[in-house]
Amino acid sequence: MKSPLALIVDDEPDIRELLEITLQRMDIQSLSAENIENAKTLLHAHAFDLCLTDMRLPDGDGLELVKHIQERHAPLPVAVITAHGNMDTAVRALKNGAFDFISKPVDLPALRKLVSTALKVGLSPPAERRTRHELLGESAVMRSIRSKIAKVARSQAPVYISGESGSGKELVARLIHKQSPRNGKPFVAINCGAIPQELMESEFFGHKKGSFTGAVADKTGLFQAAEGGTLLLDEVADLPAPLQVKLLRAIQEKKIRPVGEQREVAVDVRLLSATHRDLGKMVQDGAFRQDLYYRINVIELSVPPLRDRSSDIPQLARHMTALLAEANGMPVPELSASAMTALMRYDFPGNVRELENILERALALYEGDRIEETDLNLPGSDAAITAVPEFDPAELTLENFLEKVEKRAISEALEKSRWNKTAAAKRLGMSFRSLRYRLKKLGLDDASPTGTRRARGYSSNLCNACGAKTSNKTKQSHYRIAATPGEAAYAACSRQHRSIAPVKPDTCPGS
């Protein structure tokens, strides 16, 4: 088998000799150049499998050589050698297409790992790229995402995956790992928002026995668990400030320090991060470190929400229906034309995850051999709200007008759900907590089907019979007379209101 051939570009003879000896011991042949001009000549004359270049050269910047290789000699992997602590230069090189970077003084074990990984890119056959069977959708935006995944998979640059919750960010991360030279190593995903803050450092970097109360044995951190593979920091925006500092150092130095350990441990991981929040705005607001943001956001992939690619919904729906039916041992039902139209018109605030939830529910409720629109039970689909009247500023302020519209919408949803607040919240497309807040804000928290007030959870100082304001002392007695009809209701109200204000018989609905 032919030995790989590497190009070394550095103006320091000692560095060139060190790299040549290291590569020779790895059975890799090498040719050296001391400047960009000589390097371009060698590139034209030979077919290289790898290039190692310094960033500061006598006749120019190493970035110039990186760009030249990307334009004329792709897909040759290029690794850059930077001065210690000069992370900004490394980030610029990665953005311009460099495969990876290593800092001076050169750490030989780290160099060997970098070279081995780079040669996998250049020498191994291309990974299976038919991701359309996993990342479904034939819309232009999805074809673009799949193309970008194939490109960034070849690099070791950190990738930041943005997108709404449920849009498929983790699937994109897994596909990047699958198509990369690291696909034979672990893929480890961490949900940063699910780990208690006091345990984060131990979970990320591990700890030594006895380093804190409860540390009864050594523990390997998730960085070490992903050694040689890919580490996904999901919901990276939830990282607390102290851990952001430690993560920044781990990215720059490619080393971690377990809790209670005196020495740093070298790690070799490809870092991916994802969040549904606007990380750029968090940086502006001071909620996320700017330097860390630029370290993890070397390459950005934005996953579109489902509503922006509604043409993909039929393919997704059929695929998910088949998978769910197979998992439940059921025949695969057909989606009717009306059901498919309803899905394509729906906004999907929960994206692909919500689509799967809707289809799983429909699969449990449908009858016959196909799923109809009514089986989908889409939020808000059967809770049509009466047409909203035009706003007239002469009659109401905007605030009062909006409150009136909101109150009517919520009242109609409650009536159609038979006053089941959980069901009403689903009809309105909001959480139960949000509905409960609005009910209290609009004075509907004790509303009942009869139009009276409930005793349980009673929070308003109103008479159950006539609606007049009462004192706290009379709440329970007012509840007792809530259903009292006619004169009895008026008499009871009269007795209760006597100390507050006289009530005339014709003002009480019970009379």
Tally of separate helices: 21
The whole-number mean of residue pLDDT values reads 80
Strand order of the largest sheet: 2-1-3-6-7
Number of strands: 18
Question: Low-confidence stretches at least 5 residues in length (pLDDT < 50)?
Answer: 124-129, 382-386, 450-469, 471-511
The main β sheet shows up as: 5 strands, parallel
Tell me the overall shape: elongated
Based on secondary structure, the structural category is: alpha/beta
The helix content is 40-55%
Radius of gyration (Å): 33 Å
- In whole angstroms, the N-to-C terminal distance is 103 Å
Beta-strand percentage range: 5-15%
Oligomer: single chain
Q: Which features characterize this protein?
A:
21 helices; about 500 residues; alpha/beta; disordered C terminus; five-stranded parallel beta sheet
Please give the structural blueprint.
Elements: E1 5-9, H1 13-25, E2 29-33, H2 36-45, E3 50-54, E4 56-57, E5 60-61, H3 62-72, E6 78-82, H4 87-95, E7 100-103, H5 108-123, H6 140-152, E8 159-162, H7 169-179, E9 187-191, H8 200-205, E10 206-207, E11 219-220, H9 222-225, E12 230-234, H10 241-253, E13 255-256, E14 265-266, E15 270-275, H11 279-284, H12 290-296, E16 299-302, H13 313-327, E17 334-335, H14 337-345, H15 351-365, E18 370-371, H16 373-376, H17 398-416, H18 421-428, H19 432-441, H20 475-480, H21 486-497
Parallel strand pairs: 1-2, 1-3, 3-6, 6-7, 8-15, 8-16, 9-12, 12-15, 17-18
Antiparallel strand pairs: 4-5, 10-11, 13-14
